[in-house]
Amino acid sequence: MKNNETAESRSINMYAAIEAGGTKFVCAVSDHELHVQDRIHIPTTTPSETLGAVFAFFDKYTLDAMGVGSFGPIDANPSSPQYGYITTTPKLAWANYDFLGALKAHYPQLPIAFTTDVNVAAYGEFKRGAGQGKKNVAYYTVGTGIGMGYIHNGGIYMGDQNPEAGHILVRRHPDDTFAGACPYHGDCLEGMAAGPAIEQRWGKKGKDIGPDEPAWNIEAYYLAQACMTTTLFLSPDIIIFGGGVSKQSQLFPLIRSQFTRLLADYVTVPADADQYIVPVALGDDAGITGALLLAQEQAA
C-alpha cells in the first residue's frame, strides 16, 4: 500500500482507518477496493492535540465508514456505560478517556467499528496475511507492550473485556535476574519480554543487540511460554508475531525450539512449528489493513 492522493481521490467516498498506538496514530483512507489513497502518522501526545490533527486529516474526505483499533486497555463491551473508553493506560492524558465518544461527536452520522489495535492487526493478518485460510488465529504484537488479538471461527473474539494476554504470568528463565518492567505485575510476560524490558535488562534497544547474543535466548523463552499457554487454552490454527521484536528473524527458530521443548508433545499442533509460529506477513500494514476491512464491513 502506498500514498497516491489526488484531487479525484478527495471527491470519492472513502473508508477511514485509525491505528491508534501509544506512540503514534496511523490514519489512512482507502477507496472501496481498499487501496490506500492517503496516509499520515501523528504523534500521540494529548487527546485534544492528537485528535485535532486526526480530524484535520479526515475532514478533507467524504467518509462512508471508519475502523478504529486503539491502544488500551479499552472498554470494548457495547453494553458497558464506558464502551469506547481508554481506561487504565499509563499514558495519563488518555486514562479514562472517551475515545469513541470524541470520534462520534465529530462524525455523528459515520458508522464506526471500534476495537483494540492488536485486534485490527489480527484481523488484517487473518484476511490478507499469514492467517489466510485459517479459522482460529492468534496474533501477538511485541513492542513497547505486548498484546494479543484472537480470531475465533472467523470473527474477532471478545469477552466481557478484551483479553490482556500480555500480562499472563511466566516462568523465569534460569539465567535471568531482571526484576521485570511491568508497573502492575512486575515479571509478567510484558514485564519480561516487551521492548522496555529488553532495554532495561541489557542497557540497549533490541535493534542494537546482535543476532547471536544470549539476549534472544531469554526473549525466546518467554515468548515460547506465551505460545504454549495460547496453544493449551485456545488451540489456534496458527500463532503470528508482529511488532518491533518480530523483525528479529533469528528469534523465530529459538521460539519454535523452546516451544517444542516446553510443550513436550503433550498436545499436537496443526502444523510443524515453522508453520505454526510465524512472523507477520503484512508488516507494518497489518493494523491499517484490518481497520479498513472493519470499516468496509461496517458500511455494508
Compose a concise summary of this entry.
This protein is of the alpha/beta class and 300 residues long. The chain contains ten helices and twelve strands. It has two domains: 111 residues, Nucleotidyltransferase, domain 5 (2-Layer Sandwich), CATH 3.30.420; 152 residues, ATPase, nucleotide binding domain (Nucleotidyltransferase, domain 5), CATH 3.30.420.40.
Fold and architecture overview:
The structure is a single chain. This protein has 300 residues and is an alpha/beta fold. The protein has two domains: 7-117, ATPase, nucleotide binding domain (Nucleotidyltransferase, domain 5); 130-281, 2-Layer Sandwich (Nucleotidyltransferase, domain 5). The chain is built from ten helices and twelve strands. The strands form three sheets. A five-stranded mixed beta sheet has the order 3-2-1-4-7. Strands 10-9-8-11-12 form a five-stranded mixed beta sheet, sandwiched between helices. Strands 5-6 form a two-stranded antiparallel sheet. Helix 4 (117-128) crosses helix 10 (286-299) and helix 7 (215-234) crosses helix 8 (251-263). The model has no long low-confidence stretch (mean pLDDT 94).
Distance between the termini: 23 Å
Q: Quick check: average pLDDT? A: 94
Number of helices: 10
Q: Which value, in Å, is the CA radius of gyration? A: 19 Å
User: What can be said about the biggest beta sheet?
Assistant: 5 strands, mixed
Q: Name the CATH architecture of the largest domain.
A: 2-Layer Sandwich
The number of domains is: 2
* Uncertain segments: none
CATH top level of the largest domain is: Alpha Beta
Query: SSE string, helix = H, strand = E?
Result: HEEEHEEEHEHEEEHHHEHHEH
* Overall geometric form: globular
> Could you give the count of β-strands?
12
Level of helix content?
A: 25-40%
Strand content: 15-25%
- For this structure, the CATH topology of the largest domain is Nucleotidyltransferase, domain 5
Backbone structural class: alpha/beta
The CATH homologous superfamily of the largest domain corresponds to ATPase, nucleotide binding domain
